[in-house]
Design goal:
Layout lengths: L5 H12 L2 E2 H11 L5 H13 L4 E4 L2 E3 L31 H10 L9 H8 L1
Length: 122
């Protein structure tokens, strides 16, 4: 894990474990990189928030899957989140749209159309 960037390590931990407080993240990083200062962790978290890869939930908690409460009827993501697909493919929306729709409407399950399911089976 020494080759993994600190930012990637933080994103993977939050992705695998859900919302985490800065202190929990610092303890996790110290297991792999002893001596890493907490302000370095905070800086990497702030960068990930600015890049749209992570959400700040308040009181030092971070989550990659938090609902964007600013979502309105017209959706605009000026900076595409690179964690969700490539904008190079026509019609490929930013994954935050799907995430926010699921969270906004409290979906209990998400289904695929028959066409999408057939394509995925091929």
């Amino acid at each position: 894990m020494a080759d993994t960037s600190l930012r990637t390590m933080l994103l993977e931990f939050v992705d695998g474990n859900g919302a985490s407080h800065t202190r929990e993240l610092h303890i996790e990083v110290l297991r792999h990189r002893p001596g890493t200062p907490e302000h370095t962790i905070r800086a990497r978290l702030s960068e990930a928030v600015e890049d749209g890869l992570l959400d700040r939930l308040g009181d030092g908690f971070y989550n990659i899957y938090a609902e964007d409460e600013q979502m309105i009827s017209v959706v605009l993501y000026p900076q595409r989140c690179s964690a969700f697909g490539s904008a190079a493919h026509r019609g490929n929306c930013d994954g935050r749209l799907i995430k926010n729709l699921v969270l906004r409407y409290r979906a209990r399950s998400v289904g695929l159309s028959h066409w999408v399911a057939d394509v995925l089976r091929q």
